[in-house]
Design a protein that fits this description.
binds cytidine-5'-triphosphate, globular, Rossmann fold, 8-stranded mixed β-sheet, two-stranded antiparallel sheet, 25% helix, alpha/beta
Amino acid sequence: MRILITAGPTREPIDPVRFIGNRSSGKMGYALAEASIEAGHEVILISGPVALTPPEKAEIIQVETALQMFEAVRDSINECDVAIFAAAVGDYRVESFSDSKMKKTGRTVTLTLVENPDILGSARGGFGFAGYLVGFAAETENVETNASEKLARKGCDLLIANDVSRKEIGFDSEQNEVTVFLKDRSPHSFPQESKKEVAKKLIDLIERSASV
Ligand code: CTP
């Protein structure tokens, strides 16, 4: 199969030296790319800025902002059989980027933020993607209710939820513990393991579910 994977954080620039980012390390997305390649699939990895080396055989598209990630996904998703959205996309960007470095004024500064497009949420209606769609849900509370709602709202076949409020499995950790939600089936939890092991199991599940 040809698998598109988004990974890492996005950066939303404020001025030439500052940005709004998030705590995503990209480890889960890169582990999924590695596991996909090891299982014999082709991978397009659309990645925000991370300190990781991408798997050699992946086609890598480096982006910085949510809007750039949106365009990169739009332009390649329909070449793929499966799309996995592991990136932590910034929900907001700064309304007006300052071309020069903002100087201290001695006063309170207010930044106006505008919403970024929902890339996963655009896959079906916006991009017309008809393949197997996999989303992630980073939750800090009511994991099950929020994940089931997200699965339906974003048109996913599979949603992978994790509780990012738990330090040992949250952002930038080596391990993960996920619960998967499939349409019309009861949720299934995987044990806490390295992101590499979790990725292998997820790719195996996606292979089985996508080819039904
Ligand atoms: N996602 C996306 N584009 C966005 C926001 C999120 O593609 N602008 C994707 C993520 O990659 C993930 C899924 O949507 O696969 C859910 O992300 P999450 O941050 O949990 O959900 P949000 O849609 O941002 O909803 P909320 O923050 O309200 O929980």
